[in-house]
Design a protein that fits this description.
By secondary structure, this protein is of the alpha+beta class. It has helices at residues 36-44, 68-86, 93-109, 126-144, 149-160, 182-190, 198-206, 227-242, 253-263, 270-277, and strands at 2-5, 19-20, 26-28, 49-52, 288-291, 296-301, 311-316, 323-328, 337-341. GO terms for molecular function: hydrolase activity.
Length: 342
């Protein structure tokens, strides 16, 4: 399958990955043949990129860090939690803990898999997909940094709940009042949950603080920002760079990785950014690219140690004259990706 912009999708093509709603329900199933109405609806609900099936790349399989089944279960739990917070009711932290245990088990089993944020976003599900992505990336960074199992669970729950302050009616990030900022509101929600570590509440509180002391809501200097919050800040920043549905634009992964390197040291913890860059796929599988040889192809494989040097399948001609070859950029060191084709 290939990863393409919604504007380049045509009626009659087949969907390569299932699209979920905010509560984990299926909106469109993998394999459905897309119609003009479906494509128009996907655009209307904010979808910008999708996977489509392609006979020339049918053998490509995305290596998932966490299974779709687990993601759906976590989204359902998060939906229940967020609904409770919106209505001012208490929420069940045990359910969150059980979901996190399952998610952590899968991440530990698949920790050698490069992160590819392949879930299709809509206006409805973007907050849920964002929190799961931040949770997965934060956990991988924590594993790379040698955190204990207890620390990883605290970090993962903190990452999953880092934006809960956005659900409060009094939240206003533009007011100039730090106590109305979603970070402060999230801390107020979580600090009263005695069954949760206070460090989890501080992830919500501090994840928009920056290493130069110019962040929100308290302008903390870098050495006063807790490790968990510094890790979540890196994951949160990357996911936000990739997806900006509010303005209908997105930064490509390789551009986002370059931006992360620029932010390292000044805004983000440099060591954590280095660990992060070891976990993420710079050119996700299914992406169409143009090589320095002037050939075009699709990313079909990854290298854990060299995320910026994937395997590219180049297809030329058609029918009996079709020529297919794979270019392993880890081995062909004089060939480079010149641009990404959407």
């Amino acid at each position: 399958m290939r990863y393409v912009h919604i504007e380049n999708v045509e009626s009659g093509q087949y969907l390569g990955r299932t699209i979920f709603s905010a509560n984990g329900a299926v909106l469109l199933s993998e394999g459905v043949q897309l119609t003009v109405f479906m494509i128009t609806t996907l655009k209307r609900i904010g979808v910008t990129m999708i996977y489509i099936k392609d006979q020339q790349f049918d053998d490509i399989e995305l290596a998932d860090l966490v299974s779709e089944e687990t993601k759906r279960a976590v989204m359902q739990r998060m939906g229940e939690t967020f609904d409770s917070i919106r209505s001012g009711k208490d929420f069940n932290t045990k359910h969150i803990g059980v979901s996190i245990d399952t998610l952590l088990d899968e991440i530990m089993r698949n920790k050698e898999v490069l992160v590819q944020l392949s879930d299709i976003r809509t206006h409805d599900n973007e907050m849920y997909v964002h929190t799961i992505n931040v949770c997965m990336m934060s956990t991988l960074i924590g594993i790379n940094m040698g955190l204990s199992t207890t620390q990883l669970k605290e970090l993962a729950i903190g990452a999953l709940l880092h934006d809960v302050g956005k659900l409060e009616l009094v939240t206003d990030d533009e007011s100039g009042d730090p106590r109305k900022h979603h970070t402060w509101r999230g801390f107020e929600v979580l600090k009263h949950k005695r069954e949760l570590s206070l460090l989890i509440a501080h992830v919500a509180f501090q994840h928009h603080e920056t290493m130069d002391g110019q962040g929100m809501p308290r302008q903390l200097p870098g050495d006063e920002i807790h490790l968990y919050a510094r890790i979540v800040a890196v994951a949160d920043t990357y996911d936000n760079l990739l997806f900006d549905l509010s303005e209908g634009r997105r930064m490509l992964p390789h551009d986002a990785c370059e931006r992360m390197m620029v932010l390292a040291g000044e805004k983000l913890d440099r060591e954590i950014v280095i660990q992060f860059l070891r976990t993420v796929s710079v050119y996700p599988t299914g992406t169409s690219v143009k090589l320095s040889t002037r050939e075009t192809g699709v990313v079909v494989g990854q290298h854990r140690g060299l995320p910026g040097r994937p395997v590219i399948r180049v297809v030329k001609g058609g029918g009996d004259d079709m020529e297919v070859k794979e270019v392993d950029l880890a081995k062909q060191t004089t060939v480079f990706i010149e641009s990404v084709l959407m």
